[in-house]
Amino acid sequence: MPETQHVSDGEEPNAGAEPHAEEDPHAEVHDQTPHPRFGPAGEEIRDLTPRERGRINRRELLKLAPVAVLGAFAIPSLQPPLLNTGLRFSDWTAEKLFGARRLEPTYSNSEVAPFDRFPYNYYDVLDPEVDLARWTLTVEGLVKRPGNYTLQQIQALPKVVQNTRHICVEGWDVVGNFGGVRGSDFLRWAGADLTARFVEFECADDYYESIDMATMLHPQTLFCYEMYGRPLDRGHGAPLGLRMPTKLGYKQAKYLVAIRVTNVLKNGMRGYWEDQGYDWYGGL
To answer: Could you write out the DSSP letters of every residue in 25-82?
Structure first.
């Protein structure tokens, strides 16, 4: 880098120095004025400021991953390894960006969609015909007090009501009203090992799911037994479902019948859709 000549107040530049040789009028002149750069569509390209870079959230980052490898999927032999690598990268990135105390937005009652506008997923209307009067939740694994817990016992714990957004991987979303007990409160009550890595869920309709312990302990994660101030109905997973506004809809297991606290997930039982190719973390 050329040395910069500092001139103090009142001093003539280059005082006492040899005069410059006469400048060549034909010498190339380099314009130091920055010129805008343009992309292939004519859009101006500019560098993001640090503040703007900080606004790129995790959801936007995760959207970039599949775009980067889209062209390579045209080669059949590369499709399976690329898919598996992409899913692992997505899971790894989502886990690193997950904030154990970062809350998803909550909404006022006026922003909540009417109950009849909250969709029933196709799989929800296949009613497994749970006997609600005899239902219990089996708790097992790394817990001090394993056993079968009634809905009344679960409802005796402090209730939390929240208005949060449900986001479905199929492309729709809706703000709803949900009530239940925090997953963290229930696990502490059952004496669960909170240093364990995972929690597995079994459902009455043969659906199954698993999540990491950090998500289970997130303050917005609920064992949900109410919607819109009413008992959870059969179409939405009565009598108890998992509600996590930090996750996509397919992670929200319904018709819960058992949970297991563990350090090792059962082979081939990571999640109903995950075992068919969806990413395991499923975070927003």
So the answer is: TTS-----S---EE-TTSPEE-PPPHHHHHT--HHHHHHHHHHHHGGGGGSGGGHHHH
